Amino acid sequence: MRYHALACDYDETLAAEGRVDDGTVAALERLVRSGRQLIMVTGRELEDLLRVFPRLDLFDRVVAENGAVLYRPADQTSTPLAEAPPARLVELLRERDVEPLSVGSVIVATREPHGDTVLHAIQELGLEMQMIFNKGAVMILPSGVNKASGLAAALAELGLSAHSTVGVGDAENDHAFLVACECAAAVSNALPAVKERCDLVTEGERGAGVAELAGRIVETDLSEVDVDRHHLLLGTVEDGELRFSPYGLRLLIAGPSHSGKSTVTAALLERIAEAGYQFCLIDPEGDYIEGIEGAVVLGDGRRAPTEDEIVQVLKEPGESVVVNLLGVSLDDRPGFFEGFLPRLSALRARHGHPHWLVVDEAHHMMPDGFGLESVSLLREAGALLMVTVHPAAVSGPVLQTLNAIAVVGESPGDALGTFAAATGQILPPEDFPDLPTGHLLLWQPPAEPLRVELTPPRQERQRHRRKYAIGDLGEAKSFYFRGPHGALNLRAENLAVFCRLADGVDDDTWNHHLRRGDYSRWIAEQVKDEELAAEVAEVEREPGDSAAEARRRVRELVEDRYTAAATGPG
User: Where does the UniProt annotation place the signal sequence (predicted)?
Assistant: First the structure.
């Protein structure tokens, strides 16, 4: 389910001449029974609304006074979201015969033609107030308070995201909250300017239009509405930019080691995060130890994250999570993920987020034997991103949940063939040449595979740099100085420790590993820095006059690339 809440304006949207008809109420009741939540967002004062509409019990929250008051129908409590209006402003408006004049908990309201009088009073008193117009009404509120800010407060209390919300309205003061919603709807009687900015317009007017919208949400989850204003950039193709929907994509990123999978993943995660979508990234090998801007990293090499702490963070729709599984033994990581998946799915079923589930090293986390019940939970994710070097090692039923694959590097046809066989698609009979760095093949059947030039992350990341410099790679990926007779067992868990130990070991131990090419092999396979590995391999082939000289050259190569990452910004 994509949409978990409907946010409605009241006058001339839900209501006609202040009243809501029985058919509209019945449609709202059906929407509530579907498990969705209702939020009213109105310019009316609360007492007035309670008097004219007796079915506020259908709503989980009411935003009144154009965003200034939050009301909870379940316990009939309310909270002002800004300070009360200055008494001197009210007095001055009365002195100048502004009628009608209504004073709420926060709002002061009148009607045209008093707009100029209100503006002059605000300027005369030196107040930081704003005027909002709505079909002849003039509303005076503190700066920054509007229907969008009030809706944000309501969604925060409910643990919901605007990205899981549909909004419907009709007038000028609805613009702000409609744009904030994932899908913006206008009833057919809405002002032309409102209709132009919305993603859909109902056929019916007022309450009939809201009933129509509620029915479509229940029946189709608005799957027929492509909200392309939220599409995210992937890259460029021959005829321009290529963008994708933030909902419903189930993408596998595949390719050999060091072929650019991490760059594609980083670019997608950057755009997902910048657009405000929440993600949960399962990171089996600690490759995201520095995290992603705006994401919370849970777990490290010494401590496994707990399910409770992951869920607690994800309950806040503005917080994304990197689940670092280095503290979980290698064999137990798939079980940890499969055991946690039901709780993640339950959170999404209740609140509509996280919007994205991202699984790195998918061949390890979801191998053959991955439970069918867990596969069904994957299908319920809003969007799914999996990354692997071995697509053939990913569980077949898991591959069948996918609807797209992005392949990078050499022999892209191999990964495309694996995807086609697993999903029952027919791969076009053509040769797929090796892909240069920065390019990928995107296949979303039944469309033909597209060659895409990736638009890289805005800030090119050295994703692992700080981790490899001073983090803990874990025992399996550390370097061990053992010496020619295996008498030593000195563990270097990162490059900084490697350099310190290298300076301290005896020459026989240093030269033993040097002659075997152990240093460059470790840097290539575990540190995943092929450029540095190639430079160190040159030293291994031509070590110089002494062990001390070779040590110095290797240390300088490492420090040139990693000292800044180890020390961090100054």
Answer: none
Residues 155, 161 contacting (CB under 8 angstroms): yes
Confidence of residue 399 (pLDDT cuts 50, 70, 90): very high
Residue 406 DSSP SS3: strand
pLDDT at residue 278 greater than cutoff 70: yes
The helix (run of H) or strand (run of E) holding residue 358 is: strand 356-359
Q: Taking 80 as the threshold, does the pLDDT of residue 464 lie above it? A: no
As a whole number, mean pLDDT of residues 397-411 equals 95
Q: Are 194 and 210 in contact (CB under 8 A)?
A: no
The whole-number pLDDT of residue 300 equals: 85
Do the Cβ atoms of 38 and 58 come closer than 8 Å?
yes
Q: Which helix (H) or strand (E) holds 6?
A: strand 5-8
- Reply yes or no on whether the pLDDT at 532 is more than 90: no
Query: What's the per-residue H, E or C state across 124-176?
Result: HHCCCEEEEEECCEEEEEECCCCHHHHHHHHHHHHCCCHHHEEEEECCHHHHH
User: What angle do helix axes 547-567 and 507-516 make, rounded to 10 degrees?
Assistant: 80
* Sign of the dihedral defined by the CA atoms of residues 133, 138, 140, 145, in that order: negative
Kindly give the residue spans of alpha helices, DSSP state H, lying in 46-146.
Answer: 46-52, 87-95, 115-125
Q: Residue 386 belongs to what H/E stretch?
A: strand 383-388
Strands 450-454 and 232-237: antiparallel
Alpha-carbon torsion (441, 442, 448, 450), positive or negative: negative
Is residue 286 within 8 A of residue 443, CB to CB? The reply is no
List the one residue out of 203, 358, 207, 353 whose CA is nearest residue 292. Answer: 358
How far apart are the C-alpha atoms of 437 and 300, rounded to whole Å? Answer: 31
The span from the CA of 336 to the CA of 323, in Å, is: 11
Place of tokens 């304006």: 9
| CA distances for 332 relative to 60, 336, 364, angstroms | 41, 6, 10
Rg (CA), the chain: 29
**Cα–Cα distance for residue pair 87/497, rounded to 1 Å:** 67
Distances from the Cα of 198 to the Cαs of 181, 228, 438, in angstroms? Answer: 10, 11, 36
Rounding to the nearest 10 degrees, give the CA dihedral for residues 377, 380, 384, 387. Answer: 20
Residue range 476-496: mean pLDDT, rounded: 91
Query: Distances from the Cα of 39 to the Cαs of 47, 302, 430, in angstroms?
Result: 17, 44, 53
Determine the pLDDT at residue 543: 87
Using DSSP, state whether 281 is helix, strand or coil: strand
* pLDDT (0 to 100) of residue 291: 56
Which range has the worst mean pLDDT, 89-93, 207-211, 254-258? 254-258
**Which one, of 385, 397, 393, 414, lies nearest residue 320 by Cα?**
385
The pLDDT value recorded for residue 528 is 75
Give the span between the Cα atoms of 240 and 242, in whole angstroms.
7
Is residue 431 predicted with pLDDT exceeding 70? yes
**Peptide bond just before 100 cis, omega within 30 deg:** yes
